[in-house]
Amino acid sequence: LSILGVPGLGEPGPLEDVVIDRYFIPKICLREVQMGDFIRYHYNGTFKDGKKFDSSYDRGTTVAGVVGVGRLITGMDRGLQGMCVNERRHLIVPPHLGYGSIGVAGLIPPDATLYFDVVMLDIWNKKDQLQVTTLARPQRCNRTVESSDFVRYHYNGTLLDGTPFDSSYSKASTYDTYVGTGWLIKGMDQGLLGMCAGEKRSIIIPPFLAYGEKGYGTVIPPQASLVFSVLLVDFHNPKDGITLPLHGAGGFSGCSYSRNQTYNTYIGKGFIIPGMDQGLQGVCMGERRRVVVPPHLAYGENGAGDKIPGSAVLQFDVHIIDFHNPEDPVEIQTLFRPQDCNLPPRHRDFVRYHYNCSLLDGTRLFSSHDYEKPQEVTLGTHRVIEGLNTGLLNMCVGERRVLIVPPHLGHGESGARGVPGSAVLRFEVELVSLEEGVPEGYLFIWHGEPPTNLFEQMDLNKDGEIPAEEFSTFIKTQVTEGKGRLMPSSDPEKVIADMFRNQDRNQDGKISPEELKLKTDEDQEKIHEEL
């Protein structure tokens, strides 16, 4: 014993049995060596004087064998029983339990007492089964791995003594393969079955379900039990379609939220991955939906960029803000319409109206109530979006409507200040007042025939020319007497000034008889007599 670095006991007499010193015992011992077990171990063998006669370390390979079947010397058979993985023992084997009076020619002399320093590395038995321990499992698990599924998982792989041999984490890439098709060792094929996406497992695989007698390269020795710590990232089957596991309310966050911008696209035109094309079919306005897309309906084996790995199952949490078809018209809903409605507005009429404008999800954009007076516009002059112009036509004063305006009749794909691109808009509109307009290109029309000798009547002081003051006074008198009307405007003085500028063709500040012409004199159109 003194040779082994333990207190000497003097000169003992002949040993009757193996002397065992368990000088290191691991805190956790899940299994002890029993008769008939297969084991793997390292050892150094010396004589009493410390001379080494054999070492598995020197050969660079562990020893594998079966305990208790006569393949080992009797002293080693006895000395290894009860050992745990990673336990270390000193063994003293007397000659009659070693190589006896014969020894081993050239290596071990007759009647030699043998000293062994042993570390146990692996224990298994032919009756062993796969050992699967669930370390963590998601609360929701709608589906588990089945044979023929394609899986993506991370793993750390060690031998039973804790020696690492491989890790997907060190490669910064999942291990991707099919289950049950012979691409994996049998133990891993079995150990992955029944797993949920996001589940963590410890899988201990005996050698006959792993790499067996041959081992694998230089990292996995023959007859090695393997321990895998596995995290299943996702899985799918090549026959899978999309799945929609979640409908209804709930808080979502993700890429479009971080950009603070909706994702806008057409459905069914190949602009998005096929799985999302399918997953958005049938959604309602405001609906929240989770769409799980297998890789063959997403980005396939190659993935996309640095963020989507190959063969990845994708999960989209989607909130539908709005949708429309490029052929959609303005949707008009009448909330209130007065009974005495004789003259609804037409193109070129001047209207005043109040409105509230929002997105379909209720996000408020604009309101005329934020200002001191209603909005004003001449219909058909392209001063408001086409959809709003359409929605104001044929309204009665006092009528209230809700208008749903698709983007091609609103602000289009580009949007506008405060309006997102491709946004469907909702207007609540109330018509406040209406003034009958004039035809396009006209600033003033007479209700009947224009005055005869028009120039003489405009030339109030009869000096042969019409300055701006005389022109303005004449037009205002015609309007006051109900003989004609100006183009509706919030600034009639500007309309009259524009009329005078049109007639003052040489821009000398006065109209001559040669300059004054009716519009019918210019374009030969006699629909109206006007200036």
Walk me through the structure.
The protein has 531 residues and is an alpha+beta fold. The chain is 14% helix and 28% strand. It has five domains: 19-124, Chitinase A, domain 3, CATH 3.10.50; 131-236, Roll (Chitinase A, domain 3), CATH 3.10.50.40; 256-320, Chitinase A, domain 3 (Roll), CATH 3.10.50; 331-435, Chitinase A, domain 3 (Roll); 444-530, Recoverin, domain 1. Strands 1, 2, 3, 4, 5 and 6 form a six-stranded antiparallel beta sheet that branches. Strands 7, 8, 9, 10, 11 and 12 form a six-stranded antiparallel beta sheet that branches. Strands 16, 17, 18, 19, 20 and 21 form a six-stranded antiparallel beta sheet that branches. The radius of gyration is 47 Å and the shape is rod-shaped.
List its traits:
single chain; Chitinase A, domain 3; 5 domains; 11 helices; 25 strands; 14% helix; EF_Hand_1_Ca_BS; signal; PPIase_FKBP_dom; metal-binding; peptidyl-prolyl cis-trans isomerase activity
Number of beta strands = 25
The CATH architecture name of the largest domain reads: Roll
Helix and strand content put the structural class at alpha+beta
Report the major sheet: 6 strands, antiparallel
Rg calc: 47 Å
Helical content stands at: 10-25%
CATH-defined topology of the largest domain: Chitinase A, domain 3
Low-confidence stretches: 1-11, 248-252
How many domains make up the coordinates? 5
Q: Which whole number gives the mean pLDDT?
A: 90
Residues in β-strands, percent: 25-35%
Distance N to C terminus: 129 Å
Overall shape: rod-shaped
Given the structure, what is the number of helices? 11
Q: Any idea of the CATH class of the largest domain?
A: Alpha Beta
